[in-house]
TrEMBL record:
This is Oxidoreductase. Keywords: Oxidoreductase. Belongs to the short-chain dehydrogenases/reductases (SDR) family. GO terms for molecular function: oxidoreductase activity. InterPro entries: KR_dom, NAD(P)-bd_dom_sf, SDR_fam. It comes from the Bacteria. Residues 11-193 form the Ketoreductase domain.
Length: 245
């Protein structure tokens, strides 16, 4: 881990998918390190539960923004809303995602394909579009996108996951390539591996969830990518191993 978690004090961070799983664990870890967290997810109740955990650990509240990321017009207002309320954004961790249909490609229905593409690469692009101006102005901007190894190595029946993650990763890598020389913004992809989340349970219902890594165990590594100071740029992080892309 580069730097100290105390370096996050006073930083404004956004976490998507913060109502459960890895998003919730990352939000709590960021808040415990001193960051003020802006939390988004579809469910108000889930966000309130995350906020309760943050308050228990820190005595502080998060800022809750219930938002369906599939609603492109509302998503487009996210950056301006944060700018109006806080004037800045130092870090974004994109944890929200959908599993999509696990099926042979020839059996895939157009509606399932379109929804997954909207929830994956299209949402990633719109997040970059609305948040890039704020993150690029931060003296130590950080952006972390959760990804999936199927985007790197496709497998039978996981074609939709592979396609959406590969497209998302290509969008993120392109953003890195477009940053001006000397930019303070650091952008990275993080693949958490087999973590005990709701999406993992949906994908593999026969799997023993107790044998998997809990979300709280991967959160510190994600938080370390949010620290100011020297940080990697353009890496794919998998099981703690950083690979340049």
């Amino acid at each position: 881990m580069t730097g100290s978690l105390t370096d996050l004090v006073g930083r404004i961070t956004l976490v998507t998918g913060a109502s459960r799983g890895i998003g919730r664990a990352v939000a709590v870890a960021l808040a415990r390190a001193g960051a003020h967290c802006i939390l988004t997810a579809r469910t108000q109740g889930g966000l309130e539960q995350t906020d309760d955990l943050i308050r228990q650990h820190t005595g502080q509240n998060a800022t809750l923004l219930p938002l369906d990321l599939l609603d492109g017009e509302k998503l487009d207002t996210l950056g301006p809303s944060i700018a109006m309320q806080f004037g800045r954004l130092d870090c974004m961790v994109h944890c929200a995602g959908e599993l999509g249909m696990l099926s042979p490609l020839a059996h895939m229905q157009p509606g399932d394909w379109e929804r997954a593409m909207q929830a994956g690469p299209r949402t990633t692009w719109r997040l970059i579009r609305t948040l890039a101006p704020l993150l690029e102005r931060s003296p130590a901007g950080r952006a972390v996108f959760l990804t999936d190894s199927h985007g790197q190595t496709p497998a039978p029946f996981w074609g939709l996951v592979a396609a959406t993650r590969a497209a998302q990763d290509a969008i993120v890598r392109t953003w890195v390539s477009e940053l001006p020389q000397g930019s303070a913004l650091r952008i990275n992809l993080f693949e958490p591996g087999m973590v005990a989340t709701r999406l993992r349970r949906l994908a593999m219902p026969a799997l023993d969830m107790d044998s998997l890594t809990p979300p709280e165990a991967v959160a510190p590594r994600i938080v370390s990518l949010c620290l100011p100071g020297p940080q990697p740029q353009g890496t794919y992080v998998h099981f703690g191993i950083e690979t340049a892309y």
